[in-house]
Amino acid sequence: MKNRPFPAVDAGRIEIVPISEEKGEIIKVTNEIGENIPASKLIEDFFYVPLESIEESLFAYCNQIEVFEDKIFVFDRTGTEKLFIFRKNGKFLKSIGEKGGAPFEFFKPRSFAIDREKKQIVIYDNQKRKWMHFSLDGNYIDSDDVPFRTICNFQISSTGYYITATSKGDWNNHLGPIADYKLLYTDSLGNLQKAACYYQESEHNQLVYDPVRRLENDILYVPMYLNEVYTVTDTTLSLRYKFDYSEFTPFEKEKIATFENYDELRDYRSSHTYLSTFAENSTHLFFLTSDNGNERLVSIYDKRSKKLLQVSGIQCDTDFIFDFSIVLSMLVFVMSSVVFSISVISTNSVDCVSSSIGTIITDISLIFSISSDILLVE
């Protein structure tokens, strides 16, 4: 398994998806930073849907979450290495992730996505290097070889493309010139079809987060250190937002390929400014800025009034207990519609997972919605 060769890829047959930067919105981030804001000014309402807690349903971490139709899917990438399936009322149904060499078993599952057209679960195993297909009830269907490595997530477009982010640190040198493209498109059978977003980088610049997200029917891509967000389609990579950090010391794209070791990258990163976390819903953006040794700047942008609120943090003053630092680190995993929650941000479906207490907050209308008086149109 370890030395199994990759499927052959003819780089000359790969279609290059063009980038369009014509309509991207520029958002200027200033160094005028307010004090901590009370969470009560941001959170209007919430409710809990407890997940069934039995031995078979316990997980250590919630690294990824999806809600589709009548089910909640929780993926524990770093603990049990399993995908847990619950009904929307919290009733446990099944887990997927038995270890072994059988076709339905795993060695190193890394991420999953829902094929909304075929109504299937697709799990990527980084050691088997396969797309593994299951029914929504968790029954194995089949698997297909993937011609590259990745350690982050992927999304499935409505036309059936599996869109995956990679980096130089994934060591896909067998792809030749295609290895310098940061988005790879395969069909459901694992055949590499398209590539997008070319730039060179150092192998020390390994992805440490999941840059491909879903916002309702849109697929978004947030390239590491570039301070940009793109909308991804089968035909174009379109600039959606560009964050202007000119009042700070922004991370320079040209430097990404120059780091000779990880210490150089770490030192440069700790003295420069970049977009570190991003989420979006129909009315707001929520993003974090890392600046000067990983000090975090919390920003909320109202898409309607074009107003930007910038604070140094969010203070918990509510009558329920939560750690807002978990919110900031977990916020990227569910992107349907952003609202504030304990550890996952969304409104169309799931709004909060706390793996430590096995509790999920789900939304039917609005949960933890952004308070209407926090960003007013003047």
Brief write-up:
This protein has helices spanning 262-270, 324-330; strands at 15-17, 19-20, 25-28, 37-38, 49-50, 64-68, 71-76, 82-87, 92-96, 109-115, 120-125, 130-135, 140-145, 154-156, 162-165, 181-186, 192-198, 212-215, 218-221, 228-232, 237-244, 274-280, 284-291, 295-302, 307-311, 314-315, 350-354, 359-362. With 378 residues, it is mainly β. The protein starts with 14 loop residues before the first strand and ends in a 16-residue tail after the last strand.
Q: What does this 3D model show about the protein?
A:
This protein has 378 residues and is mainly beta. It is 4% helix and 37% strand. The chain has two helices and 28 strands. It has helices at residues 262-270, 324-330, and strands at 15-17, 19-20, 25-28, 37-38, 49-50, 64-68, 71-76, 82-87, 92-96, 109-115, 120-125, 130-135, 140-145, 154-156, 162-165, 181-186, 192-198, 212-215, 218-221, 228-232, 237-244, 274-280, 284-291, 295-302, 307-311, 314-315, 350-354, 359-362. Strand 23 and strand 24 form a beta hairpin. The longest helix is centred in the C-terminal third of the chain and has 9 residues, at 262-270. The chain is globular, with a radius of gyration of 20 Å. It starts with 14 loop residues before the first strand and ends in a 16-residue tail after the last strand. 42% of the residues are buried.
**Quantity of strands, as a count:** 28
The outline comes out as globular
Bin the helical content. Answer: under 10%
Rounded mean pLDDT score: 79
Q: How would you spell out the order of helices and strands? A: EEEEEEEEEEEEEEEEEEEEEHEEEEEHEE
**Span between N and C termini?**
62 Å
Low-confidence stretches: 324-378
Rg, nearest Å = 20 Å
Helix/strand class: mainly beta
Q: Tell me the major beta sheet.
A: 6 strands, mixed
What portion of the residues fall into strands of 2 or more residues? 35-45%
How many DSSP helices?
A: 2
